[in-house]
Design goal:
Layout (H helix, E strand, L loop, with lengths): L6 E2 L23 E4 L5 E6 L5 E8 L13 H8 L11 H5 L6 E6 L4 E8 L3 H13 L5 H21 L3 H12 L13 H6 L2 H11 L5 E7 L3 H11 L24 E7 L6 E7 L8 H12 L5 H9 L3 E9 L6 E8 L5 H17 L4 H18 L3 H15 L4 H10 L3 H11 L6 E7 L53 E4 L5 E6 L5 E8 L13 H8 L9 H10 L2 E7 L4 E8 L3 H13 L5 H18 L3 H13 L21 H11 L5 E7 L3 H12 L22 E6 L6 E9 L7 H12 L5 H8 L7 E7 L4 E9 L4 H17 L4 H18 L3 H13 L6 H10 L3 H11 L6 E6 L5 H7 L4 E4 L15
Parallel strand pairs: 3-7, 8-12, 14-18, 19-23, 19-24
Antiparallel strand pairs: 1-10, 2-3, 4-6, 4-7, 5-6, 9-11, 9-12, 10-11, 13-14, 15-17, 15-18, 16-17, 20-22, 20-23, 21-22
Length: 936
């Protein structure tokens, strides 16, 4: 991945307690630090309560360090570091992490690249050995370089070219904001510069930056400190730091002398967007905390200034955002908006500038200040729920501020920010005459005669690499990885439950000593309950729950929730709807009063429905411009046609305007009732306290006298269909094969999820192996199997360059066929089971994750004791059961095939494989129609 330039304002409010949460309430991250003779810094923190450990290596090299004319090198190495070393063949890192129930990943920012794993604690020594291997003995050869360069190109197409606003955030924002500093270059690189690179360029870059004196090793989890020190000394101490000094960026961005405008265009931009940037401070600046608070005041939740002004009151934007991007060297501050249908970039720019001027002209209120400071402090608390979150906080402080201890002191710095500080930094950095405005519009709006030009790569200095070239050692000469240690048994949560007199089922599980409680009120009604012709009705009903009650307006709900230090959200899925709450444990009771109010007494005000409908319609217009989202939205109506699941769960451009307040009231009155609901509480709460909260907030909620409608049976029939959705100018094609599958109650459920894990459930699964790893045709390929109460859905998907879509269709189908025809080896089966077991265990390790597992079990009528039985049931699945399930349920012969992209580049080749192919222009797609099109 690469660093996103902006933080989009989200609908969820965050913890903001005027007199409650303080920096002192957040336990510090306890860690030790030592430095080896070769310069490697080692940070370690013990957590004996977890069966896991995270190993992270952070390198002080990011996209700002890419050579001139070679943008994307740091990001390219993020990929290459997972390949081959002297003693590890390609993909060994995945065998040692994912295949034992852990995971690995990496990310590239402007200033650093970090590599991280979470694995069962008994695998710690092996991961330390592996990280030392790739630090000191990485193989950088032409074959690996070419393969990973192809994958990076597909990532660029998916993130930048296919996404409607990818060009804006990934390319134009940095390019327009900086003149001199290499922060202006895209972290993901450019296809032209990647193509121009040589193997000598790549080897020299690795030699210059991937060295122990430019790295920090972070280990947090369940381990013995003395043993860790011995292993670090054994594997890392022998590595030598090069004699050449580290290269550092010395460029200084000049101050702006006046305002500027950058006009950008994209081929799939359904709504215009505008962003305004100013040069900002560096992460270690004394001004950084105040700029972070300023950012939170502008876009931190529904009571933030930008949301209130642009989205809620003026309704000129679908989304408003801001960022205080404060990296190692001076960065930028930005505000922006994706505008509502019919609005102009000029109107958006004026509205954004008005809100910035308000902060310059007057300090924020004390309430705003409290909410913003505590939003940031509470975000740190949520991050520290996991071992990898705590390690990330230490690494980020080291990489951006030069001192991991700042992960703890920065909380006090945020708490000390005053209203005057916020106004002062607004005046200092956000001057009217030093802004850069980026206007982003559809390609069709480009002035006549102006043609887009792909800039040629800037000249690059010729590099001749004369250092050591590492190769994979012959198998007989390779050093074997260390043995696996004794396993650490996990401590499983023990859920307790009761049923109130009104029928409300209450489930409570204590899962954490951190002062957080997570709650979800789940209703057994989702998209299946949408009235005919009113797709999205249950989704809108759920969304409207938090948009006003009989005694609280929507802004009042947002303000009161944030003042209590809570997050509140609502949504609907295929079979259920829910309202979620997260709150500090000492503020649970008043937060629950608001939760009960929004669940029981929604107002469904006409003006709020009109506002929500307009936003939803604009959101759909964006989704219809993204090939991945377009293919995903079409799958349900295609494979479940004629059933209660055979429509777009979030609604369509035709159905949403037909929704009325009475429609929503009727649905709420019919389905949102205590005898059709489940309340799940997890985190820092005992069963006794949880049951008491439930009785206080919901005990007097009376069930209606009428009978509760039951969810209908759904028996879809799989049928072969090949559908092309033509999206001219799309930067990629999205390929999806879909078909109905089993319900959760089916005896084959566990063979089903193991089968899916083998096929497409992770990086090392077969689809990703074939499509990404072997051929470089996609940034990622995978599959999912959703087994619901009524029925299930299987989908396999990948995105690729348009020309490769037919090949990817063939590859997915071939792997589905092979899974039924060939036995799965014992080694592969064991690895894919470990993926499921490890992921399930990590889900139980956070309050929100545990609540999600318990809620799903309850909705699907599965006993809660399944938490303890899950591992054994997964382990019991045989290879024969995998073959049998694939043969019966995953044949591609009767699957629906959906390809969304620029059809002129693949339609003819695909039609040769599928003469019955049907093509629909994206503008003619009608998900309400049985034929899926408005054109006969």
């Amino acid at each position: 991945m690469f660093r996103a330039v902006t933080r989009i304002a989200v609908v969820l409010a965050v913890l903001a307690v005027p007199l409650g949460v303080q920096a002192a309430d957040i336990p510090p991250i306890e860690y030790r630090e030592r430095v080896l003779d070769n310069g490697l810094r080692v940070l370690s923190g013990v957590d004996a309560a977890t069966p896991n450990v995270t190993v992270q290596v952070w390198y002080g090299v990011g996209s700002k360090d890419d050579p001139q004319g070679r943008s994307g090198f740091a990001h390219l190495f993020e990929h290459m570091m997972f390949k081959t070393t002297r003693n590890m063949p390609s993909e060994t890192m995945d065998r040692m992490t994912e295949d034992v129930g852990g995971f690995n990943n990496a990310s590239t920012y402007d200033d650093f690249t970090n590599y991280y794993e979470v694995i069962p604690a008994n695998h710690l020594e092996r991961l330390l050995w592996a990280e030392a291997e790739r630090m000191g003995a990485l193989v950088v050869d032409a074959e690996i370089f070419d393969s990973e360069r192809d994958v990076v190109k597909e990532e660029l197409r998916q993130r930048i070219l296919a996404a409607p606003y990818g060009r804006l955030f990934g390319l134009m924002l940095p390019q327009a904001s900086y003149q001199t500093h290499p922060y202006k270059r895209p972290g993901i690189g450019s296809i032209a510069e990647l193509d121009a690179a040589t193997i000598d360029d790549v080897r020299a870059f690795h030699r210059d930056y991937y060295r122990p004196d430019n790295a920090v090793l972070i280990v947090v989890g369940n381990f013995d400190e003395g043993q860790l020190d011995a292993w670090v000394d054994q594997y890392f101490a022998p590595l030598k730091a090069p004699e050449a000094p580290l290269k550092r960026v010395t460029a200084v961005e000049p101050p702006r002398t006046g305002p500027g405008v950058f006009d950008g265009y994209g081929p799939n931009v359904p709504l215009p967007a505008v962003a305004i940037t100013w040069l900002g401070a560096e992460a270690a600046s004394p001004d950084a905390p105040a700029l972070q608070v300023l950012d939170a005041i502008l876009s931190g939740g529904k009571s933030s200034r930008l949301y209130n002004a642009l989205v809620y009151e003026q309704q000129i934007a679908v989304e408003a955002f801001s960022t205080a991007d404060l990296p190692q060297q001076p960065g930028m501050v930005a505000v922006g908006a994706i505008l509502a249908s019919g609005q102009t970039v000029e109107a958006g720019e004026a509205a954004l500038l008005a809100e910035v001027a308000r902060l310059r002209d007057a300090p924020p209120t004390q309430a705003e200040l409290n909410e913003a400071r505590n939003e940031l402090i509470a975000g740190a608390l949520r991050e520290r729920e996991t071992v990898d979150g705590r390690a990330f906080a230490l690494g980020y402080a080291w990489a951006t501020q030069g001192d991991p201890a700042r992960a703890n002191t920065e909380l006090a710095d945020l708490a000390a920010v005053t209203a005057a500080d916020v106004q002062r930094v607004a005046q200092k950095y956000l001057a009217e005459d030093r802004r850069m405005t980026i206007r982003y519009r559809a390609e069709s709006e480009r002035p006549a005669g102006e043609t887009p030009a792909e800039p040629a790569p800037p000249p690059a200095q010729a590099v001749v690499f004369d250092g050591e070239v590492v190769t994979l050692a012959p198998e007989a000469e390779r050093q074997a990885p260390p043995p696996v240690g004794e396993p650490v048994d996990p401590v499983l949560p023990q859920p307790a439950e009761t049923t109130l007199d009104n029928g409300l089922r209450v489930i409570v599980a204590r899962s954490s000593d951190l002062p957080l409680v997570s709650a979800a009120l789940i209703v057994r009604a989702g998209a299946w309950a949408d009235p005919k012709g009113l797709a999205g009705a249950m989704s809108m009903t759920a969304a409207m729950l938090t948009e006003g009650t009989e005694s609280r307006t929507a802004p009042e709900i947002a303000q009161q929730v944030e003042a209590l230090g809570a997050t509140l959200s609502s949504a609907a899925g295929a079979e259920s709807s829910s309202v979620g709450l997260t709150v500090m444990s000492d503020k649970v009771a008043p937060a629950f009063a608001i939760l009960a109010d929004v669940v029981r007494n929604p107002a469904f005000a006409a003006e709020e429905l009109e506002r929500q409908t307009a936003q939803a319609l604009d959101g759909l217009s964006v989704a219809y411009g993204d090939p991945g989202q377009l293919a995903a939205m079409t799958a349900g109506p295609l494979i479940f046609a004629g059933t209660p699941f055979g429509h777009a769960a979030d609604g369509t451009p035709a159905s949403l305007p037909r929704l009325t307040p009475d429609t929503l009231r009727d649905l709420h009155g019919t389905y949102v009732r205590p005898d059709n609901a489940i309340l799940v509480l997890t985190g820092d709460v005992t069963p006794e306290a949880g049951f008491a909260l439930a009785r206080e907030a919901f005990g007097d909620w009376a069930a209606p006298a009428g009978a509760l409608p039951t969810q209908p049976e759904v028996s879809p029939a799989a049928a072969r269909q090949v559908l092309v959705i033509d999206l001219p100018g799309a930067g990629q094609a999205a390929v999806r094969l879909a078909k109905p599958t089993i319900a959760r109650s089916d005896d084959a459920y566990y063979p089903a999820i193991v089968t899916n894990s083998v096929l497409g459930g992770g990086y090392s699964a077969r689809l990703n192996q074939e499509i990404r790893i072997k051929r470089g045709l996609s940034y990622g390929a995978g599959s999912s199997l959703a087994a619901r109460r009524a029925t299930g859905a299987f989908q396999a998907q990948a995105q690729t360059k348009n020309e490769s879509a037919p090949e990817v269709v063939d590859l997915i189908a071939a792997e589905m066929t092979r899974l039924a025809a060939e036995p799965v080896s014992a080694e592969e089966l064991k690895a894919r089971k470990s993926v499921l077991i490890g992921g399930f265990g990590r889900a139980l390790g956070t309050a929100g994750g545990l609540g999600g597992v318990l809620g799903d079990l309850a909705v699907q009528d599965v006993p809660l004791a399944e938490i303890g039985a899950y591992t054994a049931k997964v382990e019991a699945v045989s290879a024969e059961e995998v073959n049998a399930f694939a043969a019966e349920h995953l044949s591609p012969a009767d699957a629906a095939v959906i390809v969304a992209g620029d059809a002129r580049l693949f339609e003819q080749a695909l039609r040769q494989r599928a003469p019955d192919l049907r093509t629909i222009a994206a503008e003619d797609l009608d998900l309400d129609s049985e034929t899926l099109t408005t054109v006969d």
